[in-house]
Amino acid sequence: MKASNFRSIVPELVLIGSVIYYWTLTSNLLNPFAIGLLCILIYQILSKKATLGLIISSIVIVLSLFMVLALISELSEFEVVDQSFKNLMIFGTLYLGLNLVLGSIMFIKYLKLKIN
Fold it and tell me: Which of 44, 58, 71, 106 might form a disulfide with 92, Cβ 3.0–4.6 angstroms?
């Protein structure tokens, strides 16, 4: 696989990694949501359909923004700034920020495909 081809599917690969991480946290081998998400993402990598890519990236962006609100809500429950607060702040911000950036990159990529 060429480097340019690999770079073009990085957002989808990160989303696949997130789905696999979610799947391992559920401790349910036959998780239909995780299986469905993986199938959709793999289909998107293989087919590169612009409309499906726009839908997936829009959903990722909206859900990430919702999770930012959840992170803010969770952080507001801390009474003191301790190590747990700092860990949640650092890792939550990095993870959600990465999802927002990659979702935006994916949205722009498939928007360009849709326009052309």
Answer: 71
